[in-house]
Write a structure and sequence with these properties.
alpha/beta; 11 helices; 20 strands; binds S-adenosyl-L-homocysteine
C-alpha cells in the first residue's frame, strides 16, 4: 500500500464519506511524500483516519479521484480486473440482446474507474483516458480490456479538452490489433450506421442517444420533420423508418453530412424524402422563421454549450434561443424533442429554459416524455455529475 498521502482540511471529508469520487484542491490540507501525477495516494481526514485511496492529480482542480473507499484495498491489476468485470456484468443486464452492437462498456466514475471510458463498436473497442490516474495505469487497463472482453482491436481517442485540465496532451491511435476500417458499420435497433472511429465526433457515434432516437422515431409517422444538429443522421433515419413524411436535417459539418447521406443509402430509405442542409442552426432557424416555414416534429440535439457550471448562463441563452425559434416553427399539435448534454445545466434548469422559450414564443406545450442518456452510460447514485444528458419531448 502507498505511503504517500493527502490529508483533508477539517470538516472537508463529508463528500468522501458520501462516496463522491472527486476531491477538490480546496479540500486538501497537506500532500505527503511528493506523489507523481496519477500516483495512488492514501486519503486521510484531518485527524489522520484513513478514508480510502485515490489517484493524485497535481494540475487539476479535481486534485484527487477516489479509486476505493475500502481502506484495505490495494490499487493493482486485481483491483482493475474486478472493476472491469463489474462494468461488463452490468451491461449484460441493460442492453437487450440484438438491440445494438455498439454501446458504452465503461463510463468512468460511475463504473468505479474514474477517467476511463470504453465504447464497443462491433469488433472494435474505443478507449478514452481522461484523467492522469487512469493514464498512469494505461498499459494494465488496455491489457485487461483485451483479455476480459476478448476483443483484440483497440483504438484510442483521448483527444478531448478535459485532458488539458489534467496536464495531459492528446493521444490517439491503435493500442492493440489493427486500424479500424473507414467506415465501420454498426447496427442499432435495425438501423445501419457508418462510423468513423478515427476522425468521427466523440468516440465515433452518439451512443448515448440510442433509446431517444428510437423514442422519437416512434412519434414521426406522417410528420414533416426538422432535425437540427443531425451529425450522421441518427434521428433523421429513425424518423424515416418511423414513417415520416419528409425530413430536413441540418449540421455545420460537411463530414457528418457525408456520413448521413451514406447511412440513408445503406438503409435503402427514399432519398427524395431527405434533405441535408449544411449550415449554422442558429441562422437556419431564423431564416425558416422569416419564411414562415412549419414542421410537425422538430429535434434539437446541440453540442455541449456549457463545459462547467460557471458557463451555465451563457449556455442557457443558447438553449433559449434555439428552443424559442423551434416553438415558432411548429404547427399546432407539433412535437419538439429537445436535448441538452451540458453537464453544467441541470435537468431542472433545462426544463425552466424550455418553458421560458415556449412562453416567449406564445405557445402552450405539454410534456410527453422526459428523457436521459441510455443505461449503458451508467450513473452511479453517488455521482450525479454522471447524468449529463437530458431531453424533453413536448407537444404544442
Ligand atoms: N443527434 C446526433 C448528435 C448531434 S451532436 C445523433 O444522434 O447522432 C451535435 C452536432 O451539432 C454535431 O454533428 C456538430 O457538427 C453539430 N453542430 C455544432 N454546432 C453547430 C451549429 N452551430 N450549427 C449546426 N450544427 C452544429
Amino acid at each position: 500500500m502507498s505511503s504517500k498521502s493527502i490529508i483533508l482540511k477539517t470538516g472537508r471529508e463529508k463528500s468522501v464519506l458520501h462516496r463522491h469520487p472527486w476531491i477538490f484542491s480546496g479540500a486538501v490540507d497537506q500532500v505527503n511524500g511528493s506523489p507523481q501525477a496519477g500516483e495512488t495516494v492514501l486519503v486521510r481526514n484531518a485527524s489522520g483516519d484513513l478514508l480510502g485511496s485515490a489517484a493524485f492529480s497535481p494540475a487539476s482542480q479535481i486534485r484527487a479521484r477516489m479509486w476505493t473507499w475500502d481502506t484495505e484495498e490495494t490499487i493493482d491489476e486485481a483491483f482493475f480486473q474486478k472493476r472491469i468485470e463489474k462494468a461488463l456484468e452490468f451491461r449484460k443486464g441493460v442492453i437487450p440482446a440484438g438491440e445494438t452492437d455498439a454501446y458504452r462498456l465503461i463510463h468512468g466514475e460511475s463504473d468505479g474507474l474514474p477517467g476511463l471510458v470504453v465504447d464497443l463498436y462491433g469488433d472494435w473497442l474505443v478507449v478514452q483516458i481522461l484523467s492522469c490516474g487512469a493514464e498512469a495505469h494505461r498499459e494494465t487497463l488496455v491489457r485487461l480490456l483485451e483479455e476480459l472482453i476478448g476483443i483484440g482491436n483497440i483504438y484510442e481517442r483521448s483527444d478531448v479538452d478535459v485532458r488539458q485540465l489534467e496536464g495531459l496532451t492528446d493521444r490517439t491511435g491503435v493500442l492493440h490489433g489493427v486500424r479500424p476500417p473507414d467506415p465501420l458499420w454498426i447496427h442499432e435497433n435495425g438501423v445501419k450506421f457508418a462510423v468513423d472511429l478515427v476522425k468521427g465526433q466523440k468516440t465515433g457515434f452518439y451512443l448515448d442517444q440510442r433509446a431517444n432516437r428510437h423514442r422519437v422515431g416512434q412519434l414521426a409517422e406522417s410528420r414533416s420533420v426538422l432535425n437540427c444538429f443531425c451529425y450522421s443522421g441518427g434521428f433523421s433515419l429513425y424518423a424515416l423508418m418511423g414513417g415520416a413524411k419528409d425530413v430536413i436535417s441540418v449540421d455545420s459539418s460537411a463530414e457528418a453530412l457525408n456520413l448521413a447521406r451514406l447511412n440513408l443509402q445503406a438503409n435503402s430509405l427514399p432519398a427524395q424524402k431527405a434533405e441535408w442542409l449544411q449550415g449554422d442552426v442558429f441562422h437556419v432557424l431564423r431564416e425558416m422563421r422569416d419564411r414562415a416555414r412549419k414542421f410537425d416534429l422538430i429535434i434539437l440535439d446541440p453540442p455541449k454549450f456549457a463545459h462547467t457550471a460557471a458557463q451555465a448562463e451563457k449556455a442557457a441563452r443558447g438553449y433559449k434561443d434555439i428552443n424559442l425559434l423551434a416553438f415558432k416553427l411548429l404547427n399546432s399539435g407539433g412535437i419538439l424533442a429537445t436535448f441538452s448534454c451540458s453537464g453544467g445545466v441541470s435537468a431542472d434548469l433545462f426544463q425552466k429554459i424550455v418553458a421560458g422559450a415556449a412562453l416567449d414564443a406564445g405557445v402552450d406545450a405539454r410534456i410527453i416524455d422526459l428523457l436521459r442518456q441510455g443505461p449503458d452510460h451508467s450513473v452511479a447514485l453517488n455521482f450525479p455529475e454522471g447524468a449529463y444528458l437530458k431531453g424533453i419531448i413536448c407537444q404544442v
